[in-house]
Amino acid sequence: MKSALLLLKIIFVLLIISDYGSALYTNCGGLLEAEKGNIQTPNFPSPFPTPINCAWVIHNPHPEKKIILYFTQYFLKNSFHLSEYDEYISEHDNKGIKYLGEMNYINQFSSMAAYKPYLVIRFKVRDMGNMHLRVEEFLKDVYGFNITYEVVNKEQNIKEACSAHNCSFLGHCVANSIFSDYKCQCFPTFFGDYCQYGPFCDPSNGKNMCQNDGQCR
Fold first, then answer.
1. Is residue 73 in a domain?
2. How many helices and strands (H and E) does the chain possess?
3. Segment 133-173, tens digit of pLDDT
4. Cα 100–Cα 48–Cα 42 angle in degrees, nearest 5
5. Which InterPro entries does the record match to this protein (predicted)?
6. What is the CATH number of the domain that holds 175?
7. Is residue 92 part of a domain?
8. What is the dihedral of CA 134, 99, 55, 163, to 10 degrees?
9. Percent of the residues in the chain that have a pLDDT greater than 70, as a whole number
């Protein structure tokens, strides 16, 4: 009887260790006060550590300006939440919250604007699971995100940017060094502004898999 109880205790302890044994990774996030920059998961594009809990706080102290996020290289289905605030000190000490939503690459966002002084990105993941964009032959080994932001005048138009979707899932969206221009960098054998042409779709050489006068995209 005693040995059975001891065995149950050992199993219980092992279950706890297996569930919470990995230390929570928090060496990420922070306050961002520059007028432009990039934000990425640790080790991008390689796997990030899990469990992980990060919060990036972009501060815009100018009432006449807005914050714009560009989802250049974003490969997540969930766990990425955006909120803006009138005042923000911490998750439990803030005022005037407006929840902007949970971002999913399926929604096809290439950018998003925030008009309050603080934009907070929360990224919390217990384990990888089935949370990343995956495309046959490509995008099988990218994890997390590498996105850019800028603080601009409210009347300024949002730049024409790109994303994995805009690049037909056949290339990466990249920004130049000053974040003023965005374009698709196509994978080998693919080309076009949106990487829409390649081995199976090249109308200039008489190749087009699309039917009913469809176009490569």
1. yes
2. 1, 15
3. 888 778 888 999 999 999 999 999 999 999 999 999 999 99
4. 75
5. CUB_dom, EGF, Sperma_CUB_dom_sf
6. 2.60.120.290
7. yes
8. 30
9. 84
